[in-house]
């Protein structure tokens, strides 16, 4: 009787070890798919957040009759919303979209705002360039800088924005969100009147 119990215990222990080995093999087979699925969800979620921010900026711009910007920093993979406070000064809005949303680890974005046409200008052989000095005083009487100096308001490197007008129009743009595994989501708007939407995966 005791020997039967010993055999039973040994057999039960072997069964338990065999079940554990089978479970370990199954986990090893399924784990990469689970990791890839969770990484893909991070890309999808970040793309949806961009769409939600664009919808908010467009709706608020129309309802408040002021310009809104959806700002992007491609170096840090962040975006945030700002609104015109008057005189071309933009400040964060006082709600959930005023914070800088950062992409999850391993997720990056590429932003292209507006069309990038290739324009070539052919001048006749007998035409010469002429430098025309510019006055330093602007039309409204304010000082505009040194005479002849070209003044530009250049964006910070890596940063850009989509501008939303109170008329409902905005800059066309394409935002590609991707990760190292190759999963990607493209959020785009081809015309100034269409909403931003997910166009490819």
Give a quick rundown of the structure:
The chain is 31% helix and 24% strand.
Report on the architecture of this protein.
There is one protein chain. The protein is an alpha+beta fold. The chain has a single domain, classed as minor pseudopilin epsh domain (minor pseudopilin epsh fold), CATH 3.55.40. Helix content is 31%, strand content 24%. Strands 1, 2, 3, 4 and 6 form a five-stranded antiparallel β-sheet that branches. It has a four-stranded antiparallel β-sheet with strand order 5-7-8-9, with helices on one face. A hairpin with a 5-residue loop joins strand 2 (78-84) and strand 3. The model is unreliable at 116-131 and 148-155 (pLDDT under 50).
């Amino acid at each position: 009787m005791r020997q039967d119990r010993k055999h039973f215990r040994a057999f039960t222990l072997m069964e338990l070890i065999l079940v554990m080995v089978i479970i370990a093999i199954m986990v090893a087979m399924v784990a990469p798919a689970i990791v890839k699925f969770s990484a893909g969800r991070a890309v999808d979620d970040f793309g949806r957040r961009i769409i939600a921010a664009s919808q908010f900026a467009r709706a608020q711009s129309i309802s408040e009759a002021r310009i809104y910007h959806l700002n992007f920093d491609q170096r840090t993979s962040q975006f945030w919303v700002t609104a015109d406070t008057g005189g071309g000064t933009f400040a964060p809005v006082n709600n959930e979209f005023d914070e800088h949303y950062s992409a999850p680890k391993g997720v990056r974005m590429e932003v292209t705002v507006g069309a990038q046409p290739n324009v070539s200008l052919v001048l006749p052989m007998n035409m010469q360039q002429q430098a025309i000095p510019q006055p330093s005083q602007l039309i409204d009487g304010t000082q505009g800088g040194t005479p002849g100096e070209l003044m530009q308001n250049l964006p910070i490197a890596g940063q850009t924005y989509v501008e939303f007008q109170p008329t409902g129009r905005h800059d066309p743009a394409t935002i590609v969100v991707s990760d190292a595994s190759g999963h990607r989501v493209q959020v785009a708007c081809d015309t100034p009147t269409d909403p931003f939407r997910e166009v490819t995966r």
